[in-house]
Amino acid sequence: MTNNEATQAEPTGTGLSSKGLATGKIGMLSGAVLGISSVAPGYTLTASIGLIVAAVGLKMPAIFIAGFIPMFLTAYAYRELNSETPDCGASFTWSTKAFGPYVGWMCGWGMVIATIIVLSNLAAIAVDFFYLFIARVVDNPSIADLPGNKLVNVGTTLVFIALATWIASRGITTSERVQFALVGFQMVLLVVFAVVALVHVGAGDAPAGLSFDLSWFNPFSGLAIGAFVIGLTGSIFAFWGWDTCLTLGEESKNPKKTPGRAGLLCVATILLTYLLVSVAAMMYAGVGEDGVGLGNPDNSENVFGALADPVLGNWGGMLLFLAVFVSSVASLQTTFLPAARTMLAMGAYGAFPKKLAEVSPRFLVPTYATVVAGVVTAVFYTVVTFLSESALLDTIAALGIMICWYYGITAFACVWYFRKTVFDSVRNFVFRLAFPLLGGLMLLAVFVISIRESMDPDNASGASIGGIGLVFFLGFGILILGAVLMMVMRVRNPEFFQGKTLNRDTAALRDESDLSVR
User: Fold this and answer.
1) How far is the C-alpha of 414 from the C-alpha of 411, rounded, in Å?
2) What digits encode the pLDDT tens for the residues 166-187?
3) Secondary structure class of 298 (helix, strand, coil)
4) Residue 2, C-beta contacts closer than 8 angstroms, at least 6 positions apart
5) Tens digits of per-residue pLDDT, 42-82?
6) What contacts 364, CB < 8 A, 6 or more positions away?
7) Taking Cα atoms as reference points, which of 407, 383, 403, 410 lies closest to residue 475?
8) What span, in angstroms and rounded, lies between the C-alpha atoms of 51 and 54?
């Protein structure tokens, strides 16, 4: 067999496609670490705290819990589907088997485009903290203002995207080793930040010095429905990325069990981290709109940029800048994993061009799909940056729409796929019906209300096209674009849409000895 033949994933007749990825590489802990890296708690907190506080104020911890609930329930849908059908296409593959090619295609599109959007966010945050860190090292504050120049901003962002694309193309084991160090560093710094902030509060020298209040954790009082949904959208975005564990199923040591367990461990770890840091930041800075207040619009896109020095001092603040930079860069690299693997699966089954199904014979990763993801991310970020003065805020708001779309479809896919067996046992009823159905309904409600809210420019940066909020076009508009592209692919490659390459009866990959390219 030639290298060219080896890099082309082909369907295995009655079974799922064996795509040529490295097998038996990822354990539960390393899978959870890769998932945490994709969530990027350091980056996510500095980018989302301002958005959530602007909507719900002191109810931020409650909103994090509310965002965790549908994520936790949906994680069980992912776990159950993966135990039946471990496949790197994850949501795309499972929703196709449950609902058919059209729903599956749109679910896969939502997942890919959400990843493209978040990759651009990650690169933007990395650029901000890169210049903040350099400014501190050389003691030149003007350097920190360089990201405000759009040409410098875009140019530096494109360099980071190119580097992350290159690293993601070097193999899954390279990613795993690097991520243990990077994730460990950012998690330690976040805990140190929270502890020191609480020490300041206890010593009475915090700007706000709020007393702890259990009502902060209650999402059922003191919130208007509109504010709740806007905050919840930001919270759902904050948890997004844990499903990276599930797209690594074919590369895991136990494909049917390891990814699901890693996903649940990842989600629980993230919740605890968010609650600790958000409560500490709130008690220290308050939610006011002046100074270091978390509601200050000037700090909304970079909360840690405002809090680092006051909480940790000069050197500690510099380390926190470095931690958020590391968080962004680490996540930028790992977030290419689910995007490329979903594109690989869609290419292997004929839903996307076959070229995307190519796997590097040397590194055993979908190099071509990774490069395509990098190029599209670069183009997307460049366009949005020049359209919007607050690209980060708009894309975060749009991400909530995309995430609810494909997570919700996956949750309902679990219910429908296992519908004939959900009453066979209490376990099946809880994990294959009750949990996924509740999670899916929650995500559906947030999706519908978010679409309505996104049309109002005042709910994000104020940027609009024809009087309609830019968030609407970035969220729902991109889904419509996907539907158009789906029709194009239907004409170009009808076999997938006829159910010939992937359907409910397509068997799962058999065992690790079969997970190789034919």
Assistant:
1) 5
2) 887 776 555 566 777 888 888 9
3) helix
4) none
5) 888 887 888 788 888 899 999 888 888 888 899 899 999 98
6) 20, 21, 22, 171, 172
7) 403
8) 5
Residue type, 462: G
3-state SS record for 439-493:
HHHHHHHHHHHHHHHHCCHHHCCCCEECCEEHHHHHHHHHHHHHHHHHHHHHHHC
Indicate the pTM of the whole model. 0.83
If one looks up domain 22-511 in CATH, what number appears?
1.20.1740.10
Q: Tokens for 125? A: 């945050």
CA distance 198 to 209: 9
DSSP category for residue 422: T
Under 8 Å between Cβ of 502 and 97: yes
β-pair type (464-465, 15-18): unpaired
Exposure on the CB side of residue 46, measured as CA atoms within 13 A: 29
Rg (CA), the chain: 22
Measured distance CA(75)–CA(96) in Å, rounded: 18
Structure tokens at 517: 């390219």
Structural domain boundaries in the chain: 22-511
End-to-end Cα distance, the chain:
9
Sole residue written with tokens 């090292």:
137
Spatial contact of 242 and 263, defined as CB atoms under 8 Å apart: yes
* Per-residue pLDDT tens digits for 210-244: 999 999 998 777 777 767 776 777 777 788 888 88
Which parts of 40-100 fold into alpha helices (H)? 41-56, 60-84, 91-99
Interatomic CA distance for residues 58 and 283, integer angstroms = 9
Contact 292, 285 (CB under 8 A): yes
Distance CA 482, CA 373 (A): 16
Distance from C-alpha of 308 to C-alpha of 315, rounded to nearest angstrom: 9
Q: With beta carbons less than 8 A apart as the criterion, state whether 246 and 82 touch.
A: yes
Residue 508: which residues within 8 A CB-CB, separation 6 or more?
15, 16, 84, 85, 86, 87
58, 282 contact by CB (below 8 A): yes
Instruction: Tell me how far apart the alpha carbons of residues 320 and 132 are, in angstroms, rounded to a whole number.
Output: 10
The DSSP code sequence of 311-323 is HHHHHHHHHHHHH
Q: Give DSSP secondary structure letters for 245-284.
A: HHHTGGGBSSTTTHHHHHHHHHHHHHHHHHHHHHHHHHHH
Rounded to whole angstroms, the Cα distance separating 395 from 131 reads 22
The DSSP H or E segment spanning 154 is helix 150-168
Which among 183, 221, 134 is positioned nearest to 36, based on CA atoms? 183
Cα–Cα distance for residue pair 39/42, rounded to 1 Å:
9
